[in-house]
């Protein structure tokens, strides 16, 4: 999670301060009073008020009921994330996410790993959804989520090590908050292709997640299905999630060269003539 106060200290320019103000609206986007925004950014109220006025002129923020919230320009800029580095993953994954939501009736997510956290790219609701605190563009600690474990299981060891050596703060009584237990969970995820969140992030919420891998076997994203504890057919649910992750992964990989086919062992071999 980005520390707003640190960002201001490292970038004292007007642009840096304005960006810090925008980050201070996380995670909800507002509405927030100028005093609270200034406090979050560690800047004088007068400075925050001046910068907000400039941002308001461009539609980046707007006044609402005596407070401030993000404006329509931020919505327009946010829509441009479809041209970013994760756009191809999102485009390929979206039909599979909808199929999972329709087949299971539960909430389906697509996320990526960023600085030890899950960044949610997509969220599809099913008919039997239960309340979840996640949102597109939101974040959760990777160690406490199914998506995060699916991603960490295939992440760079250095990145995993930095998370394990940090403080694994329990979010619920069920959170895996020890290095040994988390390593075991990641090993299980690699062996089975499925990572579980057993009410570790939110009480009353269970999650099954599978990685989306590239041609080198690295997890570039993960998908999950979230439902209540005791969800019927959990093994079947895990199978659906794993199959969808595999299908998305296959679509991401480059097509085989013409004239080649897969042998029984899964290796490409020249086509017989």
From TrEMBL:
Residues 246-273 are annotated as: Disordered. Gene3D superfamilies: 3.30.450.40, Winged helix-like DNA-binding domain superfamily/Winged helix DNA-binding domain (1.10.10.10). SUPFAM superfamilies: GAF domain-like (SSF55781), Winged helix' DNA-binding domain (SSF46785). PANTHER family: HELIX-TURN-HELIX TRANSCRIPTIONAL REGULATOR, ICLR FAMILY, HTH-TYPE TRANSCRIPTIONAL REPRESSOR ALLR. Residues 73-254 form the IclR-ED domain. Residues 12-72 form the HTH iclR-type domain. It comes from Microtetraspora fusca. It comes from the Bacteria. CDD domains: HTH_ARSR. Keywords: DNA-binding, Transcription, Transcription regulation. It holds the Pfam family HTH_IclR. This is IclR family transcriptional regulator.
């Amino acid at each position: 999670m980005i520390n707003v106060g640190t960002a201001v200290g490292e970038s004292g320019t007007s642009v840096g301060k304005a960006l810090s103000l925008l980050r201070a609206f996380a995670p909800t986007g507002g509405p927030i009073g100028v005093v609270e925004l200034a406090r979050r950014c560690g800047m004088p109220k007068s400075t925050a008020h001046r910068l907000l006025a400039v941002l308001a002129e461009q539609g980046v923020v707007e006044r609402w009921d005596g407070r401030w919230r993000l404006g329509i320009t931020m919505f327009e800029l946010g829509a441009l994330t479809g041209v970013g580095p994760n756009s191809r993953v999102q485009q390929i994954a979206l039909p599979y996410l909808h199929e999972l939501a329709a087949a299971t009736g539960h909430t389906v997510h697509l996320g990526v790993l960023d600085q030890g956290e899950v960044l949610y790219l997509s969220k599809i609701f099913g008919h039997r959804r239960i309340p979840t605190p996640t949102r597109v563009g939101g974040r959760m600690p990777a160690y406490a989520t199914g998506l995060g474990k699916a991603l960490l299981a295939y992440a760079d060891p250095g990145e995993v090590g930095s998370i394990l050596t940090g403080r694994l703060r329990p979010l619920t009584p069920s959170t895996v908050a020890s290095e040994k237990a988390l390593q075991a969970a990641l090993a299980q995820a690699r062996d089975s292709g499925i990572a579980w969140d057993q009410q570790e992030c939110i009480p009353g919420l269970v999650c099954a997640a599978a990685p989306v891998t590239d041609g080198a076997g690295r997890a570039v994203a993960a998908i999950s299905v979230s439902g209540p504890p005791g969800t019927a057919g959990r093994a079947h649910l895990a199978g659906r999630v794993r199959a969808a992750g595999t299908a998305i992964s296959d679509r991401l990989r480059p097509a085989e060269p013409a004239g080649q086919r897969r042998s029984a062992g899964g290796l490409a071999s020249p086509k017989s003539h």
